[in-house]
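Need the bound structure for glutamic acid, inputs here:
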Amino acid sequence: MQALVNKIYLDHKDSISEGDKASYIPALANIPDNLGLAVRDHSSIYTAGDTTFRFTFQSLSKIILLLVALEDNSTDYIFNHVGMESSGDSFNSISKLDFTNIIKPYNPFINAGAILIASLIKGSNYTEKLKKIMVLCEKIFERNDIGFNDEIYLSERNSAYRNRALAYLLKEKDILEGDVEEILDLYFKCCSIEVNCVDLANLGYFLSFNKNSIIKDNHLRIVKALMLTCGMYDYSGEFAVKIGLPSKSGVSGGIVTCVPQRMGIGVFSPRLDSKGNSILGIRCIEELNVALDLNIFR
Ligand code: GLU
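Answer from helper R.:
Posting the output first, comments after.
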């Protein structure tokens, strides 16, 4: 496995300047070009490239938010507030949310859905809610030094016009309850959690095996189903057809992939394709998939 991981890294490392970095959060444009790949299976963690480089969690945090919210509420309650269908639109689209017949965001992995999910996390105050999220991250990443990137957090908070518009529209439609700015802040803070490729491989591995049974199995099944159908932005359908693995992408260039009962994969490279997915991230997962026949539909 280590030889394969090394080969995949070497096959792609010279393409790290292909594509563009996300820049709608200004500080994301400053992330250095980079490639890191980590695979965790039963026996070990295999890494290649810069797997210690810390980047921000961004949309991958939507997995953690959903897990915490599912543990805090009944499944029916969650899905009375947010749908289970892919939207077919970009992750931060506002257009369909304003249709009169829309009573909830399409799914928990688009921004409107994740902001709503953040509002369903229980706790007597903001600090308590954030703490729950961090504790789950500590257990999954197997480290207790979870930190935040303040520059990216502030950059997002100060430029989040579209996310604010989504949240206030949800509030205006009586879908979102609570203090909008506080809910948004919890969402931005989670997007700014610093992770590396090994953390992502641990997350993928956790989703595959539910290590220590810390989350109900049914909740993991829900998350993996949504990763398969909605995890890769509006490329999710094509990714499911071509690769067939529950995965989640983030605008900072991370992708987490879960191979049920086999392994977790974490890959990071900050330059993105037109759908917002890491270009080299997808190529590395494609290559692993072909080499190891990972597709869950095989
Ligand atoms: N913080 C980002 C946003 O809300 C996350 C988006 C993403 O990674 O897809 O726009």
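Comments: Residues 126-141 form the longest helix (16 residues). Strands lie at 36-41, 45-49, 55-56, 194-195, 247-249, 254-259, 263-268.
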